[in-house]
Design a protein that fits this description.
Radius of gyration: 22 Å
Largest sheet: none
Number of domains: 2
Shape: globular
Distance between the termini: 67 Å
Structural class: mainly alpha
Order of helices and strands: HHHHHHHHHHHH
Helix content: over 70%
Number of strands: 0
């Protein structure tokens, strides 16, 4: 359990650490960080299911003008870890993940605010021509800040979070049911946010086509995705061909 807790803490730390985002932006999304948590905790399938459910409310997630509507970097790995160690259902895990993401906005704000000290320190080293010290300030301190603010709570969740499920189940049934209903609604909110980006006359027909194939033809998501890729490639090639013909 100790090794698992340390690995979960490392995953949570890297989910917020800016350098990991420079390598790949997938660290930002719960479906990746939560899946890694499931792998290190020996429950990859359950971890993926919970992580995917937590990720859905954040499907349309953007940080416009520095505004932070949630903290999916924390909600993904920590919410998945808490759900796995305490035996929460997928719906309840979604609710807990969203609550964690909302509450820990302050954690993100603290992380970004503290890291401004290293930026100013790096600028001073740069003025002195000390490139090595400047790079050190850019990379290393922010990792330990994330480890303190994100990794330590994640470690404690794995080590001490098992009774959380029993404590939650001790609530009156109507409260537990409410958590389950909210957990079922939150993914719909994320999908609705995503559809705002697709609310264009050229894209709307494809959305309803996919819905019709799933609802009436009974196609699985994988088949619809495969067909969607084929259609996208055909449209791309056709537009390129049309452009070439117009140029001639």
């Amino acid at each position: 359990m100790l090794i698992q807790a340390l690995l979960v803490a490392l995953i949570t730390t890297c989910s917020t650490w800016w350098f990991s985002h420079a390598v790949t932006r997938t660290w930002l999304y719960p479906i990746w960080s939560g899946f890694l948590v499931g792998v290190v905790m020996g429950q990859p399938v359950e971890g993926m299911m919970i992580a995917a459910a937590i990720n859905l409310p954040y499907v349309g997630f953007i940080t416009a003008g520095g505004s932070m509507p949630g903290n999916p970097q924390f909600a993904g790995p920590v919410g998945t870890a808490l759900a796995l160690v305490s035996g929460l259902s997928v719906n309840m895990a979604t609710t807990v993940g969203v609550i964690l993401g909302s509450v820990t906005i302050l954690v993100w704000t603290a992380y970004m605010s503290i890291n401004t000290f290293w930026v100013h320190m790096a600028e001073k080293y740069l003025e002195k021509g000390n490139i090595r010290a400047m790079r050190f300030c850019n990379y290393v301190p922010s990792f330990f800040v994330s480890a303190l603010l994100n990794g330590v709570p994640a470690f404690l969740v794995v080590m001490m979070g098992a009774p959380f499920g029993e404590w939650l189940q001790s609530f009156p049934m109507w409260i537990v049911d409410a958590f389950g209903i909210i957990g079922g609604i939150m993914p719909a909110l994320g999908i609705a946010m995503l559809l705002q980006y697709l609310n264009k006359s050229k894209l709307t027909p494809f959305f309803f086509l996919g819905f019709a194939l799933a609802q009436f033809a009974g196609f699985s998501t994988m088949i619809i995705t495969f067909l969607g890729v084929i259609v996208a490639v055909l449209i791309y090639n056709f537009n390129g061909f049309s452009t070439e013909m117009a140029g001639e």
